Give the backbone structure.
Amino acid sequence: MWTSFSLPRKSPFIVFLMCMVFLVASTTRAEVEARVDRIVNGLRPYAWVLVGDEPRLDIGERMEYYNVPGVSIAVIEKGNLAWARAYGVRNTETNEPVETTTLFEAGSVSKSLNAMVVVSLSESGSFALDDAVNEHLVSWRLPPSPYTANRPITISQLLNHTGGTTNFNDRTGYMGYRRTDPIPTVQQILAGEPPALTQPVRVEREPGEFHYSNGGAVVLQLLVMETAGKPYQAILEELIFDPLGMDNSTFSIPLPTSLEASAASAHSRMRPLEGGYYVYPELAAGGLWSTPTDLALYIIEHWKALHGRSKRIISPASARWMITPSGPDTDAAAGFFITRKGPETYYGHRGGNYGFYTDMIIREATGDGAVVMVNGGSDGVRSNMRREILNAIAEEYGWKNFLAPPVTVAADPARAAAGFAGRYQVNVDCVIEISVQDEVCTVTSPERAFRAGLRAYPTVEGELVAQSIRPLRFRLVRGASARSDTLVMHDAQSRIAAPRILADQRPPYELLLSGEIELAVERYDRLHRADPNHEIVSERRINSIAYWILNREKVDAAIALFSLNTAWYPQSANTHDSLGEAYALAGNVDLAIRSYRRALELDPESVTAREALRRLENNE
């Protein structure tokens, strides 16, 4: 039913203009909704190449596939926020919906904001970026190191990860704190003192080369706090959040009451973390809570500064420096990572805390970009869910060169692929198997990239291209007979030739999978006796294989491999720690405790072993 009302008298021309404005606005809204609809209903499984037959899937299907409960998206067009949308739930137990104002942990995207603050303080005269960082620290300083005897670590080196400082992931893990845990100060984190869960920050390698460092970011956190004489959150509010209107962003611990009610929960395999989320007092490294809309405002501001359209926080020269790689062989800059797509340059940052993952990216030339945040996912920091969303946005908005290159599939794919079918030996424990069924070619192998099987396509150039995350091609070199064929595999870094083998030739790894554990262990032990330094029987590789098997509930096989590793590498705390984890999953508490105790004897600073032992001894 229509309701009548009266308008003030206006000239016909004014009325006409008002109608036109209304029609244009309505059309714009309709166009935006149509674009959103095409994006969220047109996701394609992520791969480095496109072959043209990829299924188009809706965002709900992909969230279910990746075990992602909630997604939040903001799209940037020509340096402006175009739209924001949210999907799914904040918590799978409460089923509260995700909204565009829902906060997610942004993980290492925190480093980007921290970098802009450091650059801003340098422009105000607080310090120079090439100053030695120890010159400006008071309550803690980077300890002396053989690597710094002749040249101190500078602020700029810490910004672009060339300072050689500790990365918490290297040893004890960058694991966060429960909300009920005592939270260390920044000085305790840097010194590695309780209640900190991470090792001390040190200069551990030669400065000058890129080495990603969470510890270096925390050193800068202290620098910012001592320079400004304020809590970190207050500094970020003053220099970034308030000027940019980032009302749903904070570094506060705990979360302010006003924001706690709108925070998403971290999830693993669709189960919310007890307590909702972990706390990261390493604020500059990973402590930011934010939304895609707020992060879009942040990276838009940087892009505007880069193009001389804003000087609210930093100058154009500083904005350019922030996206200048630290060296010719790295894409790491000060607060951003560079993604080159042919002649096009994109820049941004990724982040991942437990149960939260973020992608933030923008095209340098045009200011087109997006921010995607999720509160779960089975594939961790490399979440393909986010990549698929970014690709769909790039396709809809025509981001130049962003999408994977298309390939031309052979006219008769089944016939072209048939010659590749068979088994090929990469090394004594790795076999690539290529099968063809109903025109579908599948490549499988025990190595990590192949374990689940990769779909591959024969091209008009006579190769197979795999729909994998990274570039991967295969070419068959014919021998005098099929048995003497060689499969040549190319990826981004290497070229491997693998001769064809018979179907019944099985390496130790395949014996493990088939349940022939004793025979597999005997084969591995024989390889180790022949060459203890061979990569095939290295501690790291055996540990990796054992964990992959353990995660597929083949506990006995995993225990056999972990036990073999402890026999080969008895002085490695990690081998005993891993064996303890497998015993615990098998329900053998006594053996698990014994293994964890041995791990602590070898490495008294092992946080994971200490925590696991505490839980086992207290029957938690």
Summary: The longest strand covers residues 344-353. The chain has 20 helices and 18 strands. Confidence is low (pLDDT under 50) at residues 1-9.
